[in-house]
Amino acid sequence: MKRLALPLLALATIGATDAPGPHLNQVGFRPDTAKRAIIAAGGSKPLAWDVLDEVGSVVARGQSVPFGPDAASGDTVQKIDFAAVRTPGTYRLRIDGQVSHAFAIAPDIYRPLARAALNFFYQQRAGTPIEARFAGGAEWARAAGHPKEVVSCFKGTDQSGTQWPGCPYTLDVTGGWYDAGDQGKYVVNGGISLWMLQNLFEANAVAPPFADGSAALPEAGNGINDLLDETRWEMRFLLSMQVPQGQTLSLPVGPQGRGPYRLTPVDAGGMAHHKVADRHWTSLPTAPADDREERLLYPPSTAATLNLAATAAQCARIWRNVDKDFAKRCLTAAGKAYEAALRNPDIYAAQAFTGSGGYGDDNLSDELYWATAELYAATGMPELAEALHRMPLHAAPLSGEPSWASTAALGTITLATASGVAPAERAAARAKLVALADRFLAEEARSGYHIPYASTAYSWGSNSGILGRGMILALAARFTGEARYRDGAVDAMDYVLGRNPLDQSYVSGFGWKPMMHPHHRFWAHQVDARMPGPPPGVLSGGANSTSFPEASASLQGRCVGMRCWIDDARAYAHNEVAINWNAPLVWLTSDLAVPVR
Asked: Do 209 and 590 meet the contact criterion of CB atoms below 8 Å apart?
């Protein structure tokens, strides 16, 4: 991984200037897609620009298009379009006396980033040593964290005063991915992350990315696609979080906020525990193998159960022709989870625990729609199709890009892309996705930085949301063959890789100004010089104009929208990393790595 990223970093230093210059994608561009830059420049008069090749010769000229004040950045901006430059090579952009850093145009520009972004998941693995030969260097090698994780349920008093009785069993939940900068493992956030990687395989079934041996994984060379090897690591963990059949547990039924909770005995067999995590927060830094906190299963939730049902049904489809036994195991678990969720539709995640994230969600209609779509696509059962059609979300327009708390788009993507779905069902799903993509393109016209997001409010993990919009646009490009959607997907990627007012690549190891100090308990060099920095390919959560705790407090009232970000390991609300943020990075870079379809 390190070897793949370094040439791009070296390239970016050629012709560097001290001036901020135009903002653009710091990794570069494909020959056959959009190429845009933004310059913060006042006035309404267009500015002359030119593109210089490696020897300083002008290869293209044009004039910028004034946009004016941009509320999301506080800048007055002008836009530059140099899509006509298609010849592979190294270039710089010159405008208004400012010259950009060097950037590349190459057909394989995204492949190193896609490979590095996928390797993030290997490095987040629990229960196994992380080896230098797969991690990209000795600095990222580490001992196994939680190598034999046989745990029981939280028992005792939570922060709200609720007395939890525990459970009469233990589960072996070894493995899976650590969620983020902490070492919790969450079924809800694991679900959307796993789904995105499994969908990347399923939506490209003719020629899936990451052929066996192409990724840096211990399983490479086993005859199975490397993307599937990585997803199976998490899928097995999610399967292990299922409550054994016949178990009655005392759980909160119905909305009860943050407690104290009124517990009711319910038949919990087939449900999924919400998470396995530490009793108390560990400090920064703490390598996974040095985590001495008690590990506990936390109560099952309907949301986690539906995440298990959805991803296990998806697993059954994609493994059917690869490993029939594993596919059968997934389908059996999916059916049990779905039945358990129907039996217990309103068991919400209890929030009164410390030591881990809550991932609370009081609206589960989207998860039910998603899980029903996945099981329908896996089985073709008429009763599932009927249940799907009775749900308001089936006919309703999509409200936005997917997130862990808003999963309706995932079900619609499956209906639009999975084999075996009825043609009319597929066509309707695709129309909904194209309509959503049109909304995102309309937002580009209102964005000074020309991204498919026009709001001035940037929420926690905003980069993931913007890349999620890029996914929708990329799918619309497939369904319609229209280049404008593909260009919109590129715009989303451009923002994350440097076309933003901070001139910041939010991905470690890529670009001339990469993210360097994530909130992470192992990649914590800023906090402890004995710890490593991040490996290449790790995505920061990005700008957050809504939350300013602790290390980010100095930003409050002094930043606007896109500018509310700090590269600081302590700033978890702005610079944490997470599996559900890297998953759309893998999906979109893999999609953009191939020629226009």
From this structure: yes
DSSP state of 131: P
List active site positions: 182, 519, 567, 576
Report which DSSP code applies to 101.
P
Question: What is the β-pairing status of strands 163-164 and 185-186?
Answer: unpaired
Taking phi over 0 as left and psi of -120 to 50 as alpha, with beta for the rest, 431 belongs to alpha
Q: Give residue 581's pLDDT band: very low, low, confident or very high (50, 70, 90).
A: very high
Rounded CA Rg of the chain: 24
Question: How many Å apart are CA 166 and CA 158, to the nearest integer?
Answer: 12
201: tokens are 């395989």
- Give CA–CA dist 562/558, Å, rounded: 12
* 3-state secondary structure string across 303-343: HHHHHHHHHHHHHHHHHCCCCHHHHHHHHHHHHHHHHHHHH
Q: Region 304-309: what's the mean pLDDT?
A: 99
What does the alpha-carbon distance between residue 490 and residue 484 come to, in Å, rounded to a whole number? 10
Is the pLDDT at 3 greater than 90? The verdict is no
Q: How far apart are CA 337 and CA 385, in angstroms?
A: 18
Helix, strand and coil content of the chain, in percent to the nearest 5, comes to 35, 15, 45
DSSP 226: H
Reported as a pLDDT band with limits 50, 70 and 90, residue 20 is low
